[in-house]
Design brief:
Helix content of chain B: 10-25%
Radius of gyration of chain A: 28 Å
Mean pLDDT of chain B: 81
Strand order of the largest sheet of chain B: 2-1-3-4
Low-confidence stretches of chain A: 1-21
Oligomer: heterodimer
Distance between the termini of chain A: 91 Å
Structural class of chain B: alpha+beta
Shape of chain B: globular
Number of strands of chain A: 23
Number of strands of chain B: 4
Strand content of chain B: 15-25%
Radius of gyration of chain B: 14 Å
Order of helices and strands of chain B: EHEHEEH
Mean pLDDT of chain A: 83
Low-confidence stretches of chain B: 10-17
Chain lengths: ~500, ~120
Amino acid sequence: MTSEAKVIALEAPDGPRPRQLPSLRKAATGISGLDEVTGGGLPYGRSTLVCGPAGCGKTLLAMEFLVRGITQFDEPGVFVAFEESVDELVENVASMGFDLQHLQDDGKLVMDHIQIAPGDLEETGAWDLSGLLIRLGAAIDEVGAKRVVLDTIETLFGAFEDASILRAELRRLFLWLKQRGVTAIITGERGEGSLTRHGIEEYVSDCVIVLDHRVSEQTSTRRLRVMKYRGTLHGTNEYPFLIGRHGVSVLPITSLGLQHTVSTERVSSGVESLDEMLGGHGLFRGSSVLISGTAGTGKSTIAAQFCATACARGERALYFAFEESEAQIIRNMESVGMDLKRWVDAGLLQLRCVRPSLLGLEAHLASMQDLVTEYSPDVVVMDPISDLLQSGGGAMVSEMLIRQVDFLKSRGVTALFTSLNTYGDEESAAVQQIGSLIDTWMVLKLAESDGSRHRIIYVLKSRGMAHSHEIRNFVLSDEGLLVDGVFHGAAVHS
Amino acid sequence: MTVELPDTAQPTGTMYDEAPDDGVWHLRLYVAGESPKSLLAFANLKKLCENHLEHPYEIEIVDLVQNPRLARGDEILAIPTLVRRLPAPMRKIIGDLSDTDRVLVGLQLRAGGMR
């Protein structure tokens, strides 16, 4: 009589892998940001648990891992779906440009939907999951799969009555996956007081990634955390992640590693006399600039001038406006003698007018990043970021914004942000939170003197350059913008 | 135990065709090699059919180790699995069939009682 152990052995001709590798081999996921956070990818030949609440993006992350494995690393894959049908899955990821049908036709991907009807099975004695193992083994052999996804194995708990047999069999399944040497993602739904509903984290011990989907003040943010990664250093923070048109992208703050290439090239702010205040040469290319000020001080005008000047240099500019329409901006700028329309017509300027409240903040940032990636602008304006900060979510929003600033920096884009402040709050707390990433910070104010109001401007900080400490008059006229002489008025209205 | 499994079914084109309902019970037992559980399930099934089943019957053995692809057809995850293909509706019973009462309930030869 043949023992059961031999049945398993038949399915695992490779035998156990060497116990200790000199350095942990990793399977790159190809998912933007995830390989940075995990120091190169998931543990090769091991299983990783990806868990989180319903709708957090587990299935999508797992699917992208397989698709990129095939398209970027030539590692065929098997996707076993316990919940969704193959047709549903194919449809769901088509919007991200993943053509699963094509990959299946090419013999690179096997998708298998295992249907489980709860309470359907009469249990009449000892059983095991050899049927599942054999089925999975056949699928792996069919394409020579190196990557496997089981989404989500916990559904089995609804099908079988005898949980103790099932647990022992799941343990055997994970051991078997390891012996086959496939890199696997096992998904699990978050349980009460445990990572997964049925505690399968107990069986997957090499790597655990927790996803979360929080809604705070109507703003939803997805987060990813590498909770455990045996034998490797990994980022322990929670990282926001986005699901955009090109799949998942995790957003670590790379600038904390200060790896940006720094440019010594200077570009004009658009206002000559302002450039003078900035050591005479203007802004550093690729730096981040903040202009904060109260209402009606001319922030948008400086931002528009900054774009127009870039266009005049033959560069591409992208202007995100959160308060005004395209026509309104063009008209308003005409009143100070600025012709934006010619740059729009020339294809050098794109004005994107969106109310942040229309989209969730996450979707909003994802679409902005997609646009920046596609259009590759030299300069970007976000006017005003205070709208985003006020869209709710407090610290969460400013954190997302930090990542946006960081994203632009990492691409070498010179970015100008405006921020609307209330009176007496020119350096408001919300703006302070992104202040550390801002290289040049200018403040606009209204001041009263000699019975009239004046616009004044000063440079609060500007890294790496000798800048003026003076408070100057800032003049908007139909001939353009001008920073005039030093302001001598007494009472600053603030 | 001296029971041996009979020759297992080979995959043929007609395997999944609906057999005519001529009053003959079609039972299919999925096994994985000649494991103790598989042999026990087969012995239990034979005994049970002889003692409790008044209808003519056919037992077909499918060894998934030899024909891995057949697991997909009847959605087989657990081994052993007994499938009553006829009479309709299809019934699935898992385990080594040692709990006779539950097998009879599963085959609808006895009304389901307390679980």
